[in-house]
Specification:
Blueprint lengths: L15 H8 L4 E3 L13 H22 L3 E6 L22 H14 L5 E6 L2 E2 L6 H9 L4 E5 L3 E2 L2 E2 H17 L8 E4 L7 E2 H14 L6 E5 L19 H7 L6 H13 L5
Parallel strand pairs: 1-2, 2-3, 3-8, 4-7, 5-10
Antiparallel strand pairs: 6-9
Helix pairs in contact: 1-2, 2-3, 4-6, 6-8
């Protein structure tokens, strides 16, 4: 069952253990976060209160109750300068407040005494909430051309697939309480080819066109042409063989997952 505001606020998590005990859960999925990457640069205290202190409080509550926790983190703990996919043991070096707060959250969760699996994900898209796919579809309605960054590389990852992976990891933790290999840090990235944001946009617009929507021209630009308050990692690919081996979780090719999300957003499946 979901527990959230106003009953449970990550900025004031004093009653975390009581809230979890009342919910009578077998495991905790700690997915709530401060995710406004650019705004975090001017709201550092709030970002750390939610992503670090709040995450740590939830993990401590899980530890007190003796239940496992799955905590969601991000590729932003890395600086993006590595040319090959990131592995769990690579050095962390966040570029901004958001990444630093999420890294502090990881550390707090792992230090809490809870049996915890930290799952790093990247480039998340979904039929719900604010995300790149929905933004591109909205902009396509009013523009014939769009400039999209082409020098940041990653693997777009469906939140629907992430949710399935989370449930598998949580179930493994609950069903195998003595297996310590199931805890720790794991990367959970989508299958399929690497992509830039421009590549992703072109795939979105191709899918939109196939469903009767518009297909603007994508003009490929550099990061320097689209300045933002927070720096982004240039390379966000996550090597995910560890979670495949230990938890038997392998996410789908992002291109097929994009089709599912477009079907749900447009109500126009292509067959």
């Amino acid at each position: 069952m979901p527990i959230g505001r106003p009953e449970f606020d990550l900025t004031a998590p004093a009653g975390a253990a009581e809230a979890l005990a009342a919910a009578k859960v077998d495991a905790v999925v700690s997915a709530a976060a401060y995710t406004a990457v650019d705004k975090a640069e001017s709201e550092r205290d709030l970002a750390f209160a939610v992503n670090a202190e709040g995450a740590g409080a939830i993990a401590k509550a899980a530890a007190e109750l003796g239940i496992p926790i799955v905590h969601i983190s991000t590729d932003y703990v890395f600086d993006g300068e590595k040319s090959s996919p990131w592995v769990e043991t690579d050095p962390v070096a966040p570029l901004g407040v958001y990444g630093a707060s999420k890294l502090a959250g990881e550390e707090a969760v792992l230090a809490s005494g809870a049996r915890a699996a930290v799952l790093r994900v990247a480039w998340v898209f979904s039929p719900f909430g604010a995300n790149f796919v929905k933004t591109m579809l909205r902009l396509a309605e009013s523009r014939d051309q769009l400039g999209v960054v082409a020098d940041q590389i990653g693997a777009p990852t469906s939140a629907l697939d992430i949710a399935d992976g989370i449930l598998t990891v949580a179930r493994n933790l609950v069903d195998n309480p003595g297996d310590e290999c199931l805890a720790g840090v794991f990367h959970m990235g989508a299958g399929g080819p690497d992509a830039s944001w421009a590549d992703f946009a072109e795939a979105i617009f191709a899918g939109s066109e196939a469903r009767g929507g518009k297909r603007p021209v994508v003009n490929r630009i550099g990061t320097a042409d689209y300045p933002t308050p927070a720096r982004r990692p240039k390379q966000s690919r996550l090597e995910s063989s560890k979670i495949a081996k230990i938890h038997h979780v392998t996410l789908k090719d992002w291109r097929s997952s994009l089709e599912v999300v477009l079907d749900r957003l447009t109500g126009q499946p292509t067959g």
